[in-house]
Amino acid sequence: MTKLGFLGVGTIGHAVARGLLETDLIRTDKNQDGFNLEAVVLSPRGTKNVQDLMQVYSSKRNEIPCLRFETAKSNQEVIDSCDWVIVGVHHKNIEEILSRLEFRDSQVIISLASAVSREDIFRYCKKKIKQEAIFRATPLPACRHLHGTTLIYPPNEELTSLFNHLGSTVSVKSSEELLKLQTATAFMGDFYERKVVITNWLCAQGVDKMTSASYVAKLFSTIISDATEACEADQDIFENLVKEQTPGGLNEAVIAEQKEWGVYDLLKQSLDLSKKRFAGA
């Protein structure tokens, strides 16, 4: 049975921990698919996220007798009491925080910091952790609803099992590939901003805000479902879906306009710049 610690409970750490309170991973004494969770230990109480998690746990305590959620008195207590530690502190602070802590060579470290290498983590932990026991993961906020997709590097069966309970996973073979895939996550905000534009346009057309927002959210969930269902079997799924648009139809007209106006070229430029930001350049 594993004790899982959270060193830093920011937006993503909160989403992962919140998802754990919903998943069937903690409904039984023993799971059969590679990861058995006994307790979750959070960084010291005081942040809104930690308080929220403890309140939710308190309300669900009778439903999940097999799991303990608790808060540590210090970051060192998180390290001392846990087998696996999810490091969710900001990449600018990670060296200062980890270098002050004493680790054990039997521990597993999962870093959520986007621009920090496994080699850096190894060095910050004063080389007391086995380098092969250091992993990087890129969960997304939807983990809290068990719909997250998490990048994992390097591949690991137990870590994959943990995050598969929070949605799905993609195992990555190299740090270079991880950097490229992480770049795509920078467009989550852009995705939402485009929905804001469409929703506001509908409101300006006289549709009430609730109806507009609800429809736009459900519409794009429906649209992406075609790709989600087929992506494992068809590497050209998106190209094929574009080709399915009716010749001379409304969707094809929008694509042509966006190309003419250079929208997709600007998107490529943003991808290049985002990759540089992820690399810390």
Structural commentary:
With 281 residues, the protein is of the alpha/beta class. The chain has 12 helices and 8 strands. An 8-stranded mixed β-sheet has the order 3-2-1-4-5-6-7-8, with helices on both faces. Helix 4 (94-98) links the parallel strand 4 (84-87) and strand 5 (108-111). Helix 7 (175-185) crosses helix 12 (263-278). It is globular and about 65 Å long.
Which secondary structure elements does this structure contain, and how are they paired or packed?
Elements: E1 2-7, H1 11-20, E2 37-42, H2 48-60, E3 68-71, H3 75-81, E4 84-87, H4 94-98, E5 108-111, H5 118-124, E6 134-138, E7 148-153, H6 157-164, E8 167-171, H7 175-185, H8 188-204, H9 209-230, H10 237-243, H11 250-260, H12 263-278
Parallel strand pairs: 1-2, 1-4, 2-3, 4-5, 5-6, 7-8
Antiparallel strand pairs: 6-7
Helix pairs in contact: 1-2, 7-12, 8-9
Provide a concise account of the structure shown.
This protein is α/β, with parallel strands linked by helices and 281 residues long.
Low-confidence regions? none
In whole angstroms, how far apart are the ends?
40 Å
Provide the helix percentage: 40-55%
Structural class: alpha/beta
Largest beta-sheet details: 8 strands, mixed
Could you give the order of strands across the largest sheet?
Answer: 3-2-1-4-5-6-7-8
Number of alpha- plus pi-helical segments: 12
Strand fraction band? 5-15%
How many E-type strands?
8
Gyration radius, to the nearest Å? 21 Å
- Report mean pLDDT, rounded to a whole number: 91
Shape field:
globular
Order of helices and strands: EHEHEHEHEHEEHEHHHHHH
